Amino acid sequence: MAAFWAVMNAPADGRFIAQRHRLPVPDPFSFTAEGRRWTAHEWLLELVMYRLHLAFGVAGPLILFALCAAATLLLSAALWRHVGLAWPWTTTLLVALFLALAPFRGPRPYLA
Question: What pLDDT, on a 0 to 100 scale, did the predictor assign at position 99?
Answer without folding.
Answer: 94
